[in-house]
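Reopening closed ticket. The problem is back. First fold of the pair:
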Amino acid sequence: MREKRKQEVPMDPKPHFESLARYNRWANRRLYQIAAQLSDAQFREDRGAFFGSVRGTLNHILVADRVWLERIEGGGPKPSSLDEILHDDFAGLRTAREAEDERLLRVLAATPAERFESALSYRSMAGTPHELPFVQIVTHIFNHQTHHRGQAHTLLSQFGLDAPSIDFVYFLLETK
C-alpha cells in the first residue's frame, strides 16, 4: 500500500535564520575565546589550511560575510578578494567579527518576510552577473561560516588548544 504524503506547510524562514544568526554569533564568540590563547606567531603560522593560517581563515569568514551583506544591503564594506586580510591583528579581527555578527542580526531583523521568497541579483567578485533565491543565499552565508569555522577549529586543535564544542545542538541546549 502506498503511503499517503502529508502536504508540507511552508515554514516562515525569517525566525529560522534569526536563530541561525544568534547561533553564528555564539559559535564565533566561543571560537575566538579559544583563538585568543594563540601567540601572534601561531595566529599567523601557515598550517597548510585552505587560507593558510588561523588569521587567514578567520579573515576569510569575515570577508565572505561582508561580500554577501554588501550584496544584500546594496552598500557597506566591499572586500576586493576572498583572501584579503581585513585585520592583521587578532584584537582588531575579533572586534570586527563581533560587529559583523551584530550587523547580520540587524539585517535579518530588518528583512521583510516576503524577501525570503524573492531572488537576489548580484555580481560575482569577477563581475559575472548571477541571480539566486534569496533564501538560498542566506542559507549559504551560514553554511559557509560553519564550513570555515570547522577549519579554524581544527587549526586550534592542532596547536593543542581545547577547541570548543560549537555544534548547533549545544547552542540550542545552552540558550533554551
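Second fold of the pair, where the issue appears:
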Amino acid sequence: MTTEGPRFSEGTLAEYRALLTRYPQRRAALMPTLWLAQREFGWLSLPVMEYVATLMELPLAWVTSVASFYTMYWKEPKGRWHIQLCRNLPCALRGAGAIQVAVERRLGIGDGERTADGRFSLEEVECLASCGTAPVLQVNNTEYHENLTVARALELIERLASP
C-alpha cells in the first residue's frame, strides 16, 4: 500500500503553471510557488517542500533554504487565525507591549504558541512596515489592523473567536 504525499489541487496547479510564464527561469518562481504551497497546505512541512522541489525540478536544498530563511513561510502548523504582533520601536513606543500582554492573557498562549483548539497562534515579528500607524498586528499574513489599542485588539480577538 502506498500513500500519496501532498499534491496541488487542479486550481492551484493551474495557478502554478500560469506563474511559471511570468518568470524567465523556473527557479525564479520558487518564492511565489512556496506561497501557493503554504496557502494550499497551511504550512510548509518537509513533504510539502519535497513536492515543491519535485514539481519545480529544483534541488530540495534550494527549496528548504528559501523556506527556512524567510519568516513569512511557516515551517510548523499555525492556528486558523495566525496573529503577528509588531514589536519594533514605533509599535513598542505606542503600546504594543500592553497589547501583547492582553492578547496573550486572552488566548492563554505566548509568542510562538498555538491554542489547544488550533484556532489561534501568536507570533512576535520584528516589523510589519506600518510605523506611521503603530501599533499594528497582522492576521494570516494579509490583514493589517493598525492604530490599535488594547480594547480594539481584544475586540478583534472576540470577532475572530466567534463562529
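Update: turned out to be a display glitch only; the data is intact. The first strand starts at residue 81 and ends at 86. Helices lie at 10-20, 30-41, 46-56, 60-69, 89-93, 96-107, 150-161. Please close again.
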